[in-house]
């Protein structure tokens, strides 16, 4: 676990920034592959990756500052932009990235739900790789395990400054691993008949469940804000309900068009193969 990979003069090359950048690049590449395979809108994917990636970073930072740690940043406004210290809320990143994607799609008259279905696996893949960045940086860490097992972070990390040399639950590691599972489940789901919008809805539901459960092991932002739930758990409950509603709505709204759209897509692929 290394926060600093190497230095160029006095300028540090941080593992967090490098892996986070790679997560955006690789997620964009996978999204391009999926869109190319589907036969629609692949020419927009790189632009979307850049726009949504930047929007996601801004959203993740602002969400963390204002919803998780404003008591601190309210008195340290100059540190709001110190993203290399950690403090990026993935839920805010997804929200801002999705909003940016919707604006872009509407501008170019792209079917928002259909595009979201195509790139949903790429989004969760980017999240999984992003958790690797958290591990290397020593943030998004777990609470003390109370035993001899767990992760002991280096003295330079926020995790160590918070809990010292106590072994902590590998919350960010398990979340990254479960994100890879969601990635596989979404690919499997897309291979079977489904209504437009349901793949993206399923992504939101699965991730909300994962985040809700792992919050019980988190040690960075564990203070309850609603009943006995943390900010992330409260957000997970809300997003799960909204995604489930969208999943059911799409199943009813687009049920009759599903088979027609899949048949058209298959014919389109066959024409391109000739």
UniProtKB/TrEMBL annotation:
This is Phosphatidylglycerol--prolipoprotein diacylglyceryl transferase. Pathway: Protein modification; lipoprotein biosynthesis (diacylglyceryl transfer). NCBIfam families: lgt. Signal peptide: none annotated. Its EC number is 2.5.1.145. The chain crosses the membrane at residues 13-33, 45-63, 83-105, 112-130, 173-192, 199-217, 229-252. One of its GO terms (biological process) is lipoprotein biosynthetic process. It is an enzyme of class 2 (transferase). Belongs to the Lgt family. A 1,2-diacyl-sn-glycero-3-phospho-(1'-sn-glycerol) binds at residue 131. Its main location: membrane. It comes from Megamonas hypermegale. Pfam families: LGT. Catalyzes the transfer of the diacylglyceryl group from phosphatidylglycerol to the sulfhydryl group of the N-terminal cysteine of a prolipoprotein, the first step in the formation of mature lipoproteins. It is a multi-pass membrane protein. Keywords: Cell membrane, Glycosyltransferase, Lipoprotein, Membrane, Transferase, Transmembrane, Transmembrane helix.
